[in-house]
């Protein structure tokens, strides 16, 4: 299978790390939705990262959709989702909070990236930033209440998502999401970044090389 998209995207990196942990083999093409739009469009006309080109040629997009398919390939022994309903409920809550924070962080970045300073919509930016920080506050509270495992062999899907997204936020918006205000998230990020699967797919414009 082919994973298309750059590892500076938390959505692409989330998939790259999770596929490794689930033992699902893949190759990675670091293609930008901005700089190489035309090249990307030949693979997926929607030009959405991540894109997964499956072995039969089917094209999937959206990290959650891709990981749902990957779970079916991995099987129960390599699943990153808990089978217990209560554990799954918490996993989904944490994943939802993390992806909400991720979505809002991208909105903040794009607001500054695609508009000149005099065209930035301050009311919209204020609203999105507020949502972003609330999601992080809720997420920090969850980790303070019950820490997540970052151990190889027991890290779950929510852990992958938290580690990848918080690292992205610290790379892109450290002045808004001040690390010292989120000690549980920061400690968890440091643990996950030490895992070989995270190191094999580092944040940035490099290509996944395998562990």
Descriptive overview:
This protein has 211 residues and is mainly alpha-helical. It has 2 domains: 2-79, 3-Layer(aba) Sandwich (Glutaredoxin); 85-197, Glutathione S-transferase Yfyf (Class Pi), Chain A, domain 2. It is 55% helix and 6% strand. The protein is built from 8 helices and 4 strands; from the N terminus they run βαβαββαααααα. It has a 4-stranded mixed β-sheet with strand order 2-1-3-4, with helices on one face. Helix 1 links the parallel strand 1 and strand 2 (27-29). Helix 4 packs antiparallel against helix 5 and helix 6 packs across helix 7. The longest helix has 30 residues, at 85-114.
What is the CATH architecture term of the largest domain?
Up-down Bundle
Question: Helical segment tally?
Answer: 8
Helix content: 40-55%
Reported by name, the CATH topology of the largest domain is: Glutathione S-transferase Yfyf (Class Pi), Chain A, domain 2
Low-confidence stretches: none
Strand tally, please?
Answer: 4
H-E order? EHEHEEHHHHHH
> What is the beta-strand fraction?
5-15%
CATH class descriptor name of the largest domain: Mainly Alpha
**N/C terminus separation:** 17 Å
Radius of gyration: 17 Å
Overall 3D form: globular
Q: What is the spatial order of strands in the main beta sheet?
A: 2-1-3-4
Please give the largest β-sheet: 4 strands, mixed
- Quickly count the domains: 2
Q: Structural class from helices and strands? A: mainly alpha
Average pLDDT level: 95
């Amino acid at each position: 299978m082919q994973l298309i998209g750059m590892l500076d995207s938390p959505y692409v990196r989330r998939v790259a790390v999770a596929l490794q942990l689930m033992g699902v083999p893949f190759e990675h093409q670091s293609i930008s939705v901005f700089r190489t739009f035309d090249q990307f469009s030949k693979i997926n006309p929607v030009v959405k990262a991540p894109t997964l080109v499956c072995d039969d040629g089917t094209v999937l997009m959206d990290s959650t959709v891709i990981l749902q398919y990957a779970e079916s390939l991995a099987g129960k022994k390599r699943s990153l989702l808990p089978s217990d309903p209560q554990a799954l409920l918490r996993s989904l809550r944490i994943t939802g909070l993390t992806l909400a924070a991720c979505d809002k962080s991208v909105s903040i970045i794009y607001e500054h990236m695609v508009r000149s300073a005099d065209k930035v919509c301050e009311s919209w930016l204020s609203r999105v930033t507020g949502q972003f920080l609330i999601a992080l506050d809720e997420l920090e509270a969850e980790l303070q209440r019950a820490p997540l495992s970052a151990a190889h062999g027991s890290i779950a899907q929510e852990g992958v998502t938290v580690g990848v997204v918080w690292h992205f936020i610290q790379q892109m918006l450290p002045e808004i999401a001040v690390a010292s205000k989120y000690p549980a998230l920061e400690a968890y990020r440091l643990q996950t970044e030490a895992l070989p699967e995270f190191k094999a797919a580092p944040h940035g414009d490099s290509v996944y090389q395998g562990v």
